[in-house]
């Protein structure tokens, strides 16, 4: 017996890309006599509520998300943030960054992504990260990464710039991060970072980028750590130190070019572990799956959970 698919559509994702795509996908579902229902999220946080409520009432259904990484972030928190609710998720990327889709090799074409979901025989378990932030007494989950410093600075500048909306209009939202790269480079200072893991305690006096990631990608397709895997039961911490601007520019150029030679730089530090703790005493920008965490000191602990995905 075929499963029932419940779609949650974020109509504003990717400058209304999800809203444009949905009628075409709906026609495919009707033509193939697929059992489905749908809801539309109406405001920030609505997807979290919709996902949790539907899963509570229909534990055997597959919840398919049409939106961006922020939509997925809300859905996962809806299932895990309070008492865990068992449900299977699927994802059709319609946002500007779509890094989670890259991490799972989900097609960027919504029709192909739908075909993949409908053809999948059984869900597979995928890692999701959990974090607890001491200063705000905040506990939540993430699918992509949490960044402190440079990448969070770019997220902040992007979210407060009209450029992102304009680029999304032409499905070029991934370029918004690149466009504000130099502004973030100028504004972001280095900071002291303390890292505690099962491997011991480390201190980085000139940290510039600090990202705890669940898969290789961040910033709309930049391959930050190519060896990171989304189903290995571990998180990957990447710390990049910056002493001078030009070496960092060269390092970032290597990051976006084929070959991934940036990982061999002595300024790039990589740690893989199921649990981590980070401490930053200065006020820095933070981001979780592209959503702002504010500008503040951080004392944040990480661990791993799992979620069933159909893909």
From TrEMBL:
Source species, domain of life: Bacteria
Pfam families registered for this protein in UniProt: DAGK_cat, YegS_C
SMART domains: DAGKc (SM00046)
Cofactor: Mg(2+)
InterPro entries: ATP-NAD_kinase_N (IPR017438), Diacylglycerol/lipid_kinase (IPR005218), Diacylglycerol_kinase_cat_dom (IPR001206), Lipid_Phosphate_FormReg (IPR050187), NAD/diacylglycerol_kinase_sf (IPR016064), YegS/DAGK_C (IPR045540)
The keyword Cytoplasm appears for this protein: no
Single GO biological process annotation from the record: phospholipid biosynthetic process
Domain DAGKc: 1-134
Keywords assigned: ATP-binding, Kinase, Lipid biosynthesis, Lipid metabolism, Nucleotide-binding, Phospholipid biosynthesis, Phospholipid metabolism, Transferase
GO molecular function ontology, one term from the record: kinase activity
NCBIfam families assigned: YegS/Rv2252/BmrU family lipid kinase
Family note: Belongs to the diacylglycerol/lipid kinase family.
Identification of the protein by name: DAGKc domain-containing protein
Annotated source species: Ligilactobacillus agilis DSM 20509
